[in-house]
Every structure is written in structure tokens, then in C-alpha cells.
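Much of what follows relies on a compact textual record of a protein's fold. Here is one such record, which you should read through line by line:
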Amino acid sequence: MEKQQRLVVSIIDFLNQSVTDGTVKADDKESLDIAIQCISEAFGVDPSNSKQMDSLSIKPARLQNIFDVYLKTMSKVGSGSAASPPPAQLAGLSATDKAKAEKFKATGNSQMTSKQYDDAIASYSEAIAIDSENPIYYSNRAAAYSSKGDHLAAVGDAEQAISVDPTYVKAYHRLG
């Protein structure tokens, strides 16, 4: 039941975020509140219980991010375009940008060795911000998430690594 409760918490987070970010009009907030109440009761989740919500949360991953990875993966698998290099690789990064991203990766690797998982996640995220087409950065961040026990976020990053490069075998290993 915990898996389903984690999904429910993710859905609640998504619905609340949709009102906050303006995806859903404020006029529809009451309808979403009712939906949250219904699914919460059906699955034994109490949105007012911060301890339960924190223990079931998949943060920093978000349902929308996981769904985006799924859609991207499915479009690559479905269209047969997985063998063609991504547009960013065709254009190429500057040597300076590659060096910056690699420095963040090296810092993250060092932080992993020191078991500073949150810092490692931040370092790998910086590398990804510079070069989002390098599957190694996602795979390394997946390892950091897994090491701190956030396996759902680890799966999301492993799947992102696979969507970037379906031939990167290590990303499949990160899935378990």
C-alpha cells in the first residue's frame, strides 16, 4: 500500500502545485481540494500530517518530471530516433562548458566518496544544467539519490539517462 500512498502524495503535490503555479485557475481550487480529500481518504493519506507526507514524498522528484521523462523515453522508443544524436550533441558544447560540467561531476564524485549525498546531487545538477545531454551526470545523480534512500528519484534520473542515450548501459544498472 505504501507505493500507492507515495503516488497519492505525488498527485496531491501535483494538484497543489498546479494551483500555485497558475496551471489551474484559482476558481477551480475548491474542486481540487475536494479531489485531494477524496483520494486522501481512499488511500489512507492525511495531507495535514506533515510527518506522513514527508515520509511518503518523492521530493525532490516531482510527478510532472517523472511523466515528462516517460513521454520523452516513449517518443524516442516509439519513433525509432534513439539512434540519432540529440540536437544539442550535433551543435556541441564549447570546451569551456564541457570543462565546467566535468568539474561539477568531479566535485560530485568526491562528495559521494565522503557520503555527502545532498551536496553530490547539487553538483551533478549543476553539471546537468550545463550539459543536459550527458547521461553520466543523470546516472551519477541517480546513484546519489539511491545512496540517500530516495529510490524513486534515482529511477527518474536513471530513466532520464536512458532517454538521453539508450546505449549507456550503466543507467540500466541504476534501475536495479
Observations:
- The two ends are 21 Å apart (CA to CA).
- Residues 85 and 165 are 8 Å apart (CA to CA).
- The chain has a mean pLDDT of 85.
- DSSP finds ten helices and no strands in the chain.
